[in-house]
Specification:
Shape: globular
Mean pLDDT: 96
Number of helices: 5
Radius of gyration: 13 Å
Helix content: 40-55%
Number of domains: 1
Order of helices and strands: EHEHEHEHHE
Largest sheet: 5 strands, parallel
Strand order of the largest sheet: 2-1-3-4-5
Low-confidence stretches: none
Number of strands: 5
Length: about 110
């Protein structure tokens, strides 16, 4: 399972989650910053990542193009790095099920 964290999520979240799952921050992807949503979408699709974001534009892209890539839409508002890490750690089993699902392309995390 590979998670690609959008620019709107702190790179510190990635550093804290790296020990439990493969993840990458968009700023480390090699894409020119600021990356356009469509560039992030294409990168995730090509490299088999799930996009993790606060940005609802990715929900629109998912509805328009389907999946892959899959999208995890974070609906936690302004949350600290630690709160996000705790939530993703708590939801890791659910995220793994989402990753292998052939039915679902969008997961909302509250």
């Amino acid at each position: 399972m590979k998670l690609l964290f959008d620019e709107n999520i702190s790179y510190r979240v990635v550093k804290k989650l790296e020990p439990i799952t493969e993840c990458l921050h968009v700023s480390r992807s090699g894409l020119k910053m600021p990356a356009k949503d469509t560039q992030i979408w294409d990168f995730a699709k090509k490299n088999n990542y799930i996009i993790v974001t606060f940005d609802e534009d990715f929900e629109d892209l998912s509805n328009l193009y389907g999946f892959p890539p899959k999208v995890i839409l974070v609906r936690m508002g302004n949350s600290s790095t630690q709160e996000l890490v705790e939530k993703f750690t708590l939801k890791l089993a659910e995220i793994k099920q989402f990753y292998v699902s052939e039915i679902y392309g969008l997961l909302e995390v509250f």
